[in-house]
Amino acid sequence: MSNLNETHDKNLKSWVETANIKGSEFPIQNLPFGIFKSIGSKDIGQAGIRIGDQIVVLEKLLQCSVLRGKAEVAALKSRGGCLNPLMELGHDYWSELRKQVSDFLKYGSKPFTHSDVLIPIADVEMCMPAQIGDYTDFYSSINHATNVGKLFRPDNPLLPNYKHIPIAYHGRSSSIRVSGYATRRPIGQIKNADATEPVLSVCDKLDYETELGVFVGSVNDLGEIITLDQAEEHIFGCCILNDWSARDIQAWEYQPLGPFLAKNFATTISPWIITKEALIPYRCKSYKRPLADPKPLPYLNSRTHERLGGLDIDFEVSIRTEKMRKENIPAMVIGRPPFKDMYWTISQMLTHHTINGCNLRSGDFYGSGTISGSEKNQLGSLLEVTEGGKTDIVFPSGEKRKFLKDGDEVIMKAWCGGGDDLIKIGFGECRSIILSALEI
Ligand code: CA
After folding, report:
1. Domain 135-435 carries which CATH code?
2. How far is the CA of 193 from the centre of ligand 1 (A)?
3. Of the residues 50, 310, 320, 323, which has the maximum number of CB atoms within 10 A of its CB?
4. Span 122-136, pLDDT tens digits
5. Catalytic amino acids?
6. What fold does the segment set 6-127 form as a domain?
7. pTM greater than 0.85 (yes/no)
């Protein structure tokens, strides 16, 4: 398990002044990776590291011979429009690149050509950071699982396996897009409760799910297990994930094999990958199970993991309707889910994924499942907020919602620290506007 090092020093400042503003999401302690291109260009995109309102272009650092050894190898592997080859290298390479970029950016390093290696974030559009091969979505919030379970089984909301096994389904990677890409309302087979037959219809119960996304870095061979204490070394980094969900399609199709077309029409992620190393200061205890709960099986449990397996990340999800945009009304916060309340950790999810010998590949991706806290203002989906569509959300514009309407924009944010803390590690934004469905 990696430890704190000089890149986490809270007193570090950068000569990129916007990184030093209190509350900046991208201070020198963050340094997330992404792929960007010029606005409107057809290029494949190139790799960069975010600092303040700028991007450090890795190709330019190579041209200026700023990087040495493993950091240079890592930057060379970031060529080609996706981060998969860099992710494959492993922790030592990512960490050395982070250290040398931190050294280069820190105040007092007197960079010789600083304007040449930076590009303003305002001049670019972000691309998918990796080619995602396989995508798995977990179900790791016991609050979410209980809230959803109650809608279907009021007396017995949690199924008997929940506290023993991290539940997941295999999702679809081809429809994952970065923040800003609009989301088309799906059509699908729906059977309303009072109908005898299903119909093909426009989804009327479109929802979001607020989740953490995790990118796998270094891999295991087919047949090889990644143990719990090794898991963290295999994780490259994290982002925000919106697992769009068509609740009416889901209700009819999900039994007996789980979600299919209710989920795979779209998934939105934030474009910057916050490295696992940047998150080290925000590790926390894994979920404290009540005494009556079963202990996880030994392969999902260790003393170190109990002490440091969790992550203290704050999430926020808000909605802004088309009318609110026209009337200049800001987005309304719907929920602030805390990630530290998750029943299963990202290491437990990774280890469980490989316990049968399933091999993971660099750039594979998994979602945590909807994050919900125990309070009403900490819910990560509309399904929970409106209790399955029984109650309304009321916006400052006077509009009401049970589920999302066309033109609504869903905006998710996440961060570690902030407040009185000197440093805030921001994840940026995951946002998307709902487009009307295609004609049937
Ligand atoms: Ca989900």
Report:
1. 3.90.850.10
2. 23
3. 50
4. 999 999 999 999 999
5. 144
6. SH3 type barrels. (2.30.30)
7. yes
